[in-house]
Specification:
This protein is an alpha/beta fold. It has 2 domains: 184 residues, NAD(P)-binding Rossmann-like Domain (Rossmann fold), CATH 3.40.50; 87 residues, N-(1-d-carboxylethyl)-l-norvaline Dehydrogenase, domain 2, CATH 1.10.1040.10. Helices cover 46% and strands 13% of the residues. It has 12 helices and 8 strands. Strands 3-2-1-4-5-6-7-8 form an 8-stranded mixed beta sheet. Helix 2 packs antiparallel against helix 3. The two termini are 29 Å apart. Bound molecules: (S)-3-hydroxydecanoyl-COA and nicotinamide-adenine-dinucleotide. (S)-3-hydroxydecanoyl-COA binds next to helix 2, helix 8, helix 10 and helix 11. Keywords: Acetylation, Differentiation, Fatty acid metabolism, Hydroxylation, Lipid metabolism, Mitochondrion, NAD, Oxidoreductase, Spermatogenesis, Transit peptide.
């Protein structure tokens, strides 16, 4: 059954964002975050184009969205399975997939990037798409740790650029950090704030400071858990149990690192440590580096601190 239209819908005129209301969204990066955001945006009546580098990856994104929608529907439509199935079909119809980023931005009110946590790669992508996207398309990044100002600097639309930081798993996590730089216009910021609300999320306003709010507090905590283990002061299992049962976290720090992706965790901490090398909060972890070198990125590869196969 063809759930997804495999091409960009034709017949759209260029994006004409009306009264700052975002309806058409192009998401670049169909990994765990991009697929999750696509699902939530499509579930709330937005038209979504999900872009990645290959059809195979996009097939995996589609499978992930379908799986997650089934879990949502199991609860939301517990006693109405037919309505649940209809909901899934409607949501999936709102999502197109594409490997052509340039074509996919033509009708976008919002271009939201969720690709690898690497400044140069993000700058190259935005710089390229800045030349192709309609002038009024708002650009936003889902970066965990990079300055929005640095990413935006690769474009000529500094007033129409902001941060939209979602949390993993996107369908379950209620928060969105909306990040304004010194050049983000109030109109753009309001559009991003209202878009987050339209997704059913609770937005908070953030300054463009390292880690915004959540990660500025979460990253040092998680890295200290890794170092505590490396000092021989606790097994990863005991640290995870302790933080779940003693501090009320739904996942322990090792479980959460695996859930986020150890490659992403390493990108974040290496970036911060390069900028602030003497800050002990941002010191790296040998164990993390070893696992990443072995290609053990956590849940997404089947092994990280724990095994998932
Ligand atoms: C060192 C540096 C690190 C920093 C990294 C920063 C990264 C980033 O920038 C910020 C973040 O995101 S930070 C990360 C922020 N994130 C966190 O901190 C997350 C912390 N973890 C949690 O909040 C919970 O463990 C979960 C909600 C993930 C799972 O809940 P649970 O109770 O432990 O386990 P359960 O029994 O499996 O699931 C129960 C029900 O949840 C539902 N459901 C779950 N996943 C779903 C999905 N994908 N779709 C749809 N539904 C989904 C489903 O209904 C399921 O019921 P089912 O009938 O069994 O299908
Ligand atoms: N994982 C998390 O918990 C989490 C939470 C919030 C924010 N983030 C941020 O979101 C972004 C994505 O993280 P993720 O966990 O989804 O990563 P991921 O590895 O699951 O997915 C990234 C996707 O981007 C694709 N990609 C890479 N370069 C591309 C390009 N030039 N064009 C199109 N697609 C490209 C990859 O093929 C991959 O499918 C990162 O900036 C990360 O810091 C991650």
């Amino acid at each position: 059954m063809a759930f997804f239209t495999h091409q960009i819908r034709r017949g759209f005129s260029s994006s004409i964002i009306k009264n700052g209301v975002i309806k058409n969204v192009t998401i670049i990066g169909g990994g765990q975050m991009g697929a999750g955001i696509a699902q939530v945006a499509a579930s709330t009546g937005h038209t979504v184009t999900l872009v990645d580098t290959s059809e195979d990856i996009l097939k995996k994104s589609r499978k992930g969205i379908e799986g997650s929608l089934k879990r949502v529907v199991k609860k939301k439509f517990a006693d109405k399975p037919e309505a649940g199935e209809e909901f899934i079909q409607n949501v999936l119809q709102n999502v197109s997939i594409s490997t052509d980023a340039g074509a996919s931005v033509q009708a976008a009110d919002l271009l939201l990037e969720a690709i690898v946590e690497n400044l140069k790669v993000k700058q190259d992508l935005f710089g390229h798409l800045d030349e192709l996207a309609p002038a009024n398309t708002i650009f936003a990044s889902n970066t965990s740790s990079l300055p929005i100002t640095d990413i935006a600097g690769s474009t000529s639309r500094l007033d129409r650029f902001g941060g939209l930081h979602f949390f993993n798993p996107v369908p379950m996590m209620k928060l969105v950090e909306v990040v304004g730089t010194s050049t983000t216009s109030q109109e753009t910021f309001d559009s991003l704030l209202n878009f987050s609300k339209a997704l059913g999320k609770t937005p908070v306003s953030c300054k463009d400071t390292p880690g915004f709010i959540v990660n500025r507090l979460l990253v040092p905590y998680m890295m200290e858990a890794l170092r505590l283990h490396e000092r021989g002061h606790g097994s990863k299992e005991d640290i995870d149990i302790a933080m779940k049962l003693g501090a009320g976290y739904p996942m322990g720090p090792f479980e959460l690192c695996d859930y986020v992706g150890l490659d992403t965790v390493k990108f974040i901490i290496d970036g911060w440590s390069a900028k602030d090398p003497h800050n002990p909060l941002f010191a790296s972890s040998e164990l993390l580096n070893k696992l990443v070198a072995e290609g053990k990125y956590g849940k997404k590869t089947g092994e990280g601190f724990y095994k998932y196969k």
